[in-house]
Write a structure and sequence with these properties.
The structure holds two protein chains of two kinds.
Chain A lengths: L49 H19 L48 H7 L5 H26 L4 H26 L6 H22 L1
Chain B lengths: L2 H15 L1 H13 L1 E3 H8 L3 H13 L3 E6 L2 E10 L1 H5 L4 H26 L2 E2 H15 L8 H13 L3 E3 L53 H14 L10 E4 L1 H20 L2 H13 L14 E2 H7 L8 H13 L5 E5 L5 E4 L1 H21 L1 H13 L1 E3 H8 L3 H13 L4 E6 L9 E6 L2 H18 L5 H19 L7 H5 L1 H21 L3 H8 L4 H41 L1
Helix pairs in contact in B: 1-2, 2-3, 2-4, 6-7, 6-8, 7-8, 10-11, 14-15, 14-23, 15-16, 15-17, 16-17, 18-23, 21-23
The chains are: A mainly alpha, B mainly alpha.
């Protein structure tokens, strides 16, 4: 039975489907169909008119707008050619673990909630340090002025206390800076030194960009 | 879910939400229902990225969640809606419809909500008012109350609806990620909620603020963020609105019927059908086969007065409509001067049939279309009969018939006279089954987006290059641009975008014209030419997408209506 079903031998006479005795059967094809087969009929031209054009504009505008919305998720930018020392201090634009928009969490399952604390901890050594220093300075100055005022009024007895306070604060700060150094482990530089550098360089960087174009 | 649909969904997700969401979405479509952990594990993406993607999908109503197989205590499972993703194809049409019905304000409201998936009313009103104010001449501004009234209109006509409320969770420990999540009931159908179309009272007065034009891009995002933050005092927090796609689809269906009648008969009969559809808009169920019966008297009274159709002429028109072979309008009784209905399902079936016929005609020529129409009318025909009835020479008719058969547009039915299925004692009947053929064509339409080189510009360029390389190879013509130039199109496009940005910033700062031309000349003439042709191609592709979607809509509604009536 099975032998009869082989290639080239059909189970029915070919004439019944309208192929005459002399005619050849079309050759079987083993190639994949062409990617762009030739068209026998040319396509009809597209609709034109105000409606079609406005829809086209809407479509393109919408597509553009979606790219700027926070819903357009970009994975963290791939590593560039070389790992640079300054990479560590560059602020990454897209952090994987924070949502740029605030969904109403009453409508979403709790498990999707991304822990928001982590990115803050990651960034904290670089960012909040800077403004702290001058602020402390100001406070110190104010305090100093106050103590001086008091000294003038009440005499010299309070002066010692004021002086005692100051070193304590400085000690506390020293500790924080020490932590940072541990965190950054590999570097020999003190954080604050590098920060200043970067801030200064930021402006000139922008200028450079414009000059290129 | 066919391969084409999955692929198209992936392309749409990628285009609107980026590669990550595309990966998550496609995997979810392939697997059906998954938990967060399984999804993260199988896609090999970072857990946080998967979480973000799911949030985006849910925000846009494309994904739902619910208690899994292991009951309410088990992990939450996610399910994606392919149908909903494919609606993205139709976004321009929704926006355009809102514009034609409710003007610029309606357009912007629908656009904003589509962009953000779901929004509170106050937030929408503020954003839209700001945008309208921005486009107005200096010194004018849009009043919030006007936007509110447009919004209410959209809700009253059911084009917008509230997002269905999520059954609240048991425990409310915030921030606990690792503890097993509380079970959440799957969101119910929006229509089943009684408040679905109730506009809340919002405490919002004032006018849209003009933002400074110098910081356009940034301000956009910032304004959006700000709006989200400071809507706390408007009294509608937690009430989110979404676009009611079903309602839009009903509108599209009605428009398709009206325009078909206008084309087939004339403008006036189109208006009569429009009046009938408008009258029964509220009383007819969404998936009803025909509208509520209306008497000729009622129709006459409801006709817009500026049409000046006399009563006897209306009767003539109605008779004409009933007699028309397309069967758009049917007569159900004689009381009240005649009772008339619009045959919604029949109309859709006839429109779909016309689409199929025209596809055959445009792809295989008018004589093949003759055979196709013949089979549609006579149902079953033997090969000899086809040749005779179509009045086409036997050899050509055979060729056409077999081409149609191999494209699956025509089906072959064997009826054996004896149980041994011997070909000599078997009838071979050719037939056209409209429903499967429509399904097939629908898949072709989805596939079109493969051929029509979809996705964002860069991929389009990639495909265009492929196409052009092919053309040049095939025709042995001198290529319009060298291959190397083609490959650099992507870079060129980026360059032109950069230069445009520089020009814009220069203009904003009031630079001299000499300076401007200098920057403009950074794009050379051949480059400009190449860009021009690139834009031309992209525009063409985009508008063909819009048009293919029209066909998709028609076929889809036909298939849905036929399935519903079974």
């Amino acid at each position: 039975m099975m032998a009869g079903r082989g290639r080239g031998q059909l189970t029915f006479s070919v004439e019944i489907v309208g192929i005459g005795k002399g005619e050849n059967l079309p050759p079987s094809s083993v190639q994949p169909t062409p990617l762009f087969p030739p068209l026998d009929q040319k396509p009809v031209p597209l609709q034109t008119g105000e409606e079609a054009e406005y829809m086209l504009a809407l479509k393109q505008e919408f597509r553009g707008a979606m790219k700027t919305l926070p819903f357009y998720i970009r994975p963290a930018a791939p590593k560039k050619d070389v790992e640079r020392y300054s990479d560590k201090y560059q602020k990454t634009e897209t952090t994987d673990n924070s949502l740029e928009w605030k969904p109403d969490w009453r409508r979403f399952p709790k498990e999707l909630r991304v822990r928001e604390k982590r990115p803050q901890r990651d960034k904290s050594p670089a960012v909040p340090k800077q403004p702290k220093q001058p602020r402390v300075d100001k406070e110190e100055i104010i305090r100093k002025l106050e103590t001086l005022e008091q000294k003038e009024k009440e005499g010299s007895s309070d002066e010692e206390e004021g002086e005692k306070k100051k070193p304590e604060e400085e000690e506390a700060e020293g500790e924080e800076e020490y932590d940072e150094e541990e965190f950054e482990g590999e570097t020999d530089y003190v954080m604050s030194y590098f920060d200043n550098e970067e801030e200064f360089g930021g402006d000139s960087d922008d200028n450079m960009d414009e000059a290129i174009y | 879910m066919t391969t084409q649909e999955v692929r198209l969904c992936g392309l749409l997700l990628q285009e609107h939400f980026g590669d990550v969401v595309e990966k998550v979405g496609t995997h979810l479509i392939r697997c059906g229902v998954l938990t967060l952990r399984a999804l993260a594990h199988e896609t090999k993406l970072a857990l946080d990225l998967v979480k973000k993607s799911l949030c985006v999908l849910m925000q846009h109503g494309m994904c739902t969640f619910g208690a899994g197989r292991r009951g309410p205590a088990g992990p939450v499972e996610y399910r994606i809606s392919c149908e909903r993703i494919l609606h993205m194809l139709r976004y321009p049409r929704y926006i355009y419809t809102a514009k034609s019905l409710y003007g610029d304000t309606g357009e912007l409201i629908v656009e904003e909500i589509l962009q953000r998936g779901q929004m509170t009313m106050s937030c929408t009103v503020k954003t839209v008012a700001d945008r309208l104010t921005h486009n107005m001449p200096e010194g004018q501004s849009m009043d919030y109350s006007e936007v509110v009234s447009s919004f209410s209109q959209l809700v009253e006509t059911h084009f917008l609806q509230r997002c269905p409320p999520v059954a609240s969770t048991g425990s409310s420990n915030t921030g606990a990620v690792d503890t097993p999540p509380p079970a959440v009931a799957q969101p119910s159908e929006p229509e089943s909620h009684p408040d679905c179309y109730r506009v809340p009272y919002i405490n919002l007065t004032g006018q849209g603020k003009r933002r400074r034009s110098s910081e356009d891009g940034e301000a956009d995002q910032r304004a959006a963020k700000k709006a989200k933050i400071d809507n706390s005092e408007c009294g509608d927090e937690g009430i989110f609105w979404q676009v009611n796609f079903e309602r839009f689809h009903l509108h599209f269906r009605d428009q398709a019927i009206i325009s078909a009648v206008s084309c087939k008969l004339d403008q006036t009969s189109g208006e009569i059908v429009r009046t009938m559809l408008r009258m029964s808009e509220v009383t007819t169920q969404a998936n009803a086969a025909f509208t509520q019966a209306l008497s000729a008297n009622e129709i006459f009274r409801a006709l817009p007065s500026n049409y000046n159709i006399a009563r006897p002429i209306l009767d003539q028109y109605l008779t004409l409509l009933v007699d028309d072979p397309m069967e758009f309008v049917g007569k159900t009784g004689d009381s009240g001067g005649g009772m008339y209905v619009v045959n919604l399902h029949r109309a859709l079936a006839n429109l779909a049939r016309a689409t199929l016929e025209s596809v055959v005609q445009e792809r295989f020529g008018s004589r093949s279309a003759r055979i196709f129409r013949l089979l549609l009318r006579k149902r079953h025909l033997e090969q000899k009969q086809v040749e005779d009835f179509a009045m086409i020479p036997a050899k050509e008719a055979k060729d056409m018939l077999y081409t149609l058969l191999s494209e699956n547009l025509v089906q072959l039915q064997e009826i054996p006279k004896t149980p041994d299925h011997a070909p000599s004692r078997t009838f071979y009947l050719y037939t056209v089954n409209q429903l499967p053929t429509a399904r097939l064509l629908l898949q072709h339409c989805y596939k079109c987006f493969d051929i029509y080189l979809f996705v964002d510009t860069i991929q389009t360029i990639g495909n265009l290059i492929e196409r052009r390389l092919y053309e040049t190879k095939e025709n042995k013509q001198v290529p319009p641009f060298s291959t190397i130039q083609n490959i650099s199109s992507k870079r060129l496009l980026e360059k032109s975008q950069r230069i445009e940005a520089i020009l814009a910033s220069l203009q904003a700062t009031g630079a001299e014209t000499a300076q401007l031309t200098e920057v403009e000349e950074m794009i050379t003439a051949p480059e400009r030419q190449q860009l021009e042709s690139l834009r031309h191609h992209i525009n063409k592709l985009d508008s063909s997408e819009n048009q293919v979607d029209e066909t998709i809509f028609l076929l889809e509604s036909y298939i849905n209506s036929t399935e519903a009536s079974r």
